[in-house]
Design brief:
Elements lengths: L14 E2 L4 E8 L4 E8 L5 H12 L26 H16 L8 H26 L1 H7 L5 H7 L3 H17 L6 H21 L1 H21 L5 H15 L4 E5 L5
Antiparallel strand pairs: 1-2, 2-3, 3-4
Helix pairs in contact: 1-9, 2-3, 3-4, 3-8, 4-5, 5-8, 6-7, 6-8, 7-8
């Protein structure tokens, strides 16, 4: 699932204004704001600031894009192109890229948190692939709270179909917080899709939903990733430190 970026997507424009001061500009896509602040170039470089922003932005999106969100009706059809070897190669490259980044000193702890987050993405994707290819092995490696999805895959077709219905109900209930009217509409949509898929290929779609929705989301919920509000607060705190609390913002009105 591609997360929305709450921290800034940066565009750096550094201009020397004195022996110690440089001006750095960056923008926030979500808030449609352009920011500008002066920093002490005896303490930081523009590249360090850019890299530090990049690290914080990375908490708001998937870092392993070859297998970032398998919630699709085509998940099982495409599983062969997203095999463990491809995933592992991307994982190693992603970690190497982050480890080599030079950050401002105050952002070093966020680098370690991001590496831990990427580890969680990797483990989640690994288990999702394994649950389809080898459920027995996946069961042994899965978090206890998520094992019931894989257990159903190892039982008869009745158990698989029942688990599919449970996954659909879980998906519907996640919409409850958005209000009764939305919940009713979502239930109608999910029920229509379920009936259509059941008539087409119930065995395929049941396993697809159990792995790519129920099991995947359960494992993902156990992986480490800072909350977005924490990331946003850390981002503001870091900028306050870098720019000594003196930076400006110009924001445009969002068009609906």
């Amino acid at each position: 699932m591609k997360a929305m970026t709450t921290a800034a997507i940066f565009v750096s424009i550094a201009v020397t204004t004195s022996a110690q001061a440089q001006t750095y500009e960056w923008r926030s896509e979500m808030k449609l704001c352009q920011y500008q602040g002066d920093f002490d170039n005896n303490k930081y470089t523009a590249k360090q600031i850019e890299n530090s922003h990049f690290v914080l932005n990375s908490f708001t999106r998937a870092n392993l894009e070859s297998f970032s969100e398998p919630m699709s009706n085509l998940f099982l059809d495409n599983i062969s192109s997203k095999d463990p070897e491809v995933l592992t190669k991307e994982y190693k490259q992603a970690k190497s890229n982050i480890e080599q980044l030079e950050l401002v000193p105050e952002a070093q702890k966020y680098k370690q948190q991001l590496l831990k987050t990427i580890d969680g993405e990797y483990k989640t994707a690994q288990l999702a692939i394994l649950a389809y290819r080898n459920p027995s092995k996946a069961l042994k490696q899965s978090p206890p709270m998520c094992q019931h999805y894989v257990e159903a895959l190892l039982q008869d077709e009745t158990a698989v179909q029942n688990k599919w219905q449970q996954v659909i109900e879980e998906t519907i209930q996640k919409q409850a917080q958005r209000g009764a009217m939305h919940l009713k509409a979502h239930r109608l949509s999910e029920t229509w899709k379920y009936e259509k898929q059941k008539n087409e290929d119930p065995a395929f779609y049941a396993r697809n939903a159990i792995v790519s929705s129920g099991f995947y989301n359960c494992v993902k919920s156990t992986a480490y990733r800072p909350e977005l509000k924490t990331v946003s607060a850390n981002y503001a705190k870091l900028n306050h430190k870098i720019f000594d609390g003196k930076y400006t913002a110009q924001c445009a009105m969002r068009q609906e």
